[in-house]
Amino acid sequence: MENRDRDVEDFPIGSVVVTPTGKTGVVVAHKGYESKFDPFMRVMIKLDGGDRQDVVQLQPKYLRMLGDEESRISVSGQLMLKGVK
Prior knowledge:
By secondary structure, this protein is mainly β. The chain contains no helices and five strands. It has a five-stranded antiparallel beta sheet with strand order 4-3-2-1-5, with no helix packed on it.
């Protein structure tokens, strides 16, 4: 992973990202601060291969964009098909 701070703007809605566990997903929203004790913006991601409730919220520093040369396959080897909802 890169050693630089990332913002939610680095991950536009609709972009494909890779989570720290190696799963892929699509950015569906950006979420603001939860409280004054939680000063972090988060990216909401719909995970590939899951049902409609498989959504996670992660800080941008834990994500990376999926490269053009990479396929949408999770670490576990489960095939993630493009365009399947």
